[in-house]
Structure formats: structure tokens, C-alpha cells
Sequence to fold (124 residues):
Amino acid sequence: KRYNEDREQHDLFDRAVETYRQVLALAPDNYGANYNLATLFYNRGVHNIQKLDIDNDIPSIQKIQEVSKELFLEALPYMQKAHEMRPERRETLLGLEGIYYSLQDDERSEEFRLKFEALPPDQE
Fold:
């Protein structure tokens, strides 16, 4: 929560990542830790891209895109694990849709969007 309040506090990000990794070392099938770690990486990648502005030069844009792609790739296995544990959860379907979209894998992104849309409205 504290990192999400100020995403420029990279030490808070690092501490959150380390905490979730410690939880997963003890309990690899912890749904919350898998989902939240994936979300942390994904949101940091998105935040980096959202910070781009007209003053960024092409090399800096490329570097930010590369770093963001690495973060999306880091998020992917954790979101996949969370989805495997609870395949009917809307949050993991949207998470996988967003990660694949950010990785420019339109086919996989569409696959998870369709799965999400196929869920009944009250499905959890």
C-alpha cells in the first residue's frame, strides 16, 4: 500500500518484492503473494511508461520500454500461478490480459479478455 501511494519510493517497492518472495519461499502456493507480486511488477512497468513525456528523447524512451518489458515478464509467471490456483478469478484474467497486452502478445491478451467476458457477472 505504501509503495502504491508514492511509486517513486523504489525502496518501498524493493521491500514489498522481498516480502512477497519470502512468503513464496515458505508457501509457494500462496495465492495472495503470487497475485500481489505480479501486480507490483506490472504496475511498476505501467507507471514507468506513464511517466514518459514529450521531453524524453528516443534512447531514453527505448530504455524505459525495455525496463518495463522486463517488469512485465517478471510479473507473468506469478500471475500465471495465481490464475492456475484460481482460474475463475476476474482479477487474474484481467491481470493476464494486461500483461500480455503490454508484451504486445495480442492473441494471448484477447484469449484472457474473452475468458473474462465469458464469466457470469457475479462470478468470483
